[in-house]
Specification:
alpha/beta, 2 domains, eight-stranded mixed sheet
């Protein structure tokens, strides 16, 4: 079913992008103007510590389509995306990064798939990951394979670069959970989706804001949000350890009855170390899920808005 776009929203979360945000927005705007479709650019400053917000206020004068919002602190990219989706007004919404690694030239094709072929979600999927380094590339592939095995959802090459129909945006914003994983939830929600491959472009400026620690935290949160397999893993390990312990107990009783029992101090130490390690891992996995439950029951807002370029906000 063909659609008519009355307004296209482009949601862009930013953090520490003051040095190049002007060039990026000019490039994105030029591609949007070529579509001959009314549009708005919704920028969400995720508590940047540089001059990003000052630059956005300056750019408002030369970019009439710009609507900028600033969060009270750094709540994380997921919260910034959610805030941008809530503030967006378009019939279709494109989510993309501000460093032009998500090529703006692809937006026209995404809009065509949404408008002419009726897709509700157009997922831009990386066919090559760009210059991210050997270690990061290896860890990324390992994470996606682990996520697919545990959550049953394949996200190889997935990115936050997507076009979403307004009905999907509303459904996403109505989700009650506090801890969100945008690209994972888009896959989980279903609707009519299509993948559109793209090559990651060179970064306009600056460097990645994702440290290995932040990536590890994101990986843990996303897996615990989409799968209970780790909890089942604890049960499985406990069952295997019980079988091992029963077998060892049977052997010990047999040797005792046969009069061939020997001093087993090293064996006792190894068993204590093994059982302690299993218990600590199990407690850690359970603790991860308890932390998620704790975050959910507090019902704190996903973000706090600090300021805006709009007089009525």
């Amino acid at each position: 079913m063909a659609r008519t776009a009355q307004l296209l929203s482009v949601v862009i979360p930013v953090y520490g992008e003051g040095a190049h945000i002007g060039r990026s927005l000019e490039t994105i705007r030029a591609k949007l103007l070529a579509l001959s479709t009314p549009f708005e650019m919704v920028l969400v400053d995720d508590g940047s510590k540089d001059d990003t917000w000052a630059r956005l206020e300056e750019l408002k004068a030369s970019l009439p389509e710009l609507r900028a919002f600033s969060l009270s602190r750094n709540f994380g990219k997921e919260a910034a995306i959610f805030a941008g989706l809530q503030k967006s007004r378009g019939d279709a919404v494109v989510v993309m990064d501000s460093d032009l690694q998500h090529p703006p030239a692809l937006i026209g094709e995404m809009v065509a798939l949404w408008r002419d072929q009726g897709y509700d979600v157009v997922n831009a999927v990386k066919r090559r990951r760009g210059d991210e380094g050997t270690v990061r590339g290896l860890l990324s592939r390992l994470y996606y394979r682990l996520f697919a095995a545990l959550a049953g959802t394949r996200m190889e090459g997935a990115a936050d670069f997507k076009l979403i129909d307004r009905s999907v945006v509303k459904a996403y914003c109505d989700l009650p959970e506090r801890n969100l994983f945008f690209r994972g939830l888009m896959s989980w929600m279903g609707y009519r989706q299509i993948d559109l491959p793209f090559a990651v472009e060179a970064r306009t400026g600056g460097g990645t804001k994702w440290s290995l620690r932040k990536l590890a935290a994101l990986a843990l949160n996303s897996i615990s949000a989409f799968s209970t397999v780790p909890l089942q893993f604890v049960t499985t390990i406990g069952g295997l350890f019980l079988i091992f312990a029963l077998g060892l107990a049977a052997q010990t009783i047999y040797l005792k009855v046969m009069g061939r029992a020997e001093e087993g101090f090293p064996t006792v130490i190894l068993l204590l170390l093994l059982s302690s390690s299993v218990l600590m891992i199990a407690l850690g996995i359970i603790g991860q899920y308890l932390a998620r439950i704790y975050d959910e029951v507090k019902r704190r807002p996903r973000y706090l808005m600090h300021r805006s370029t709009e007089s009525d906000s």
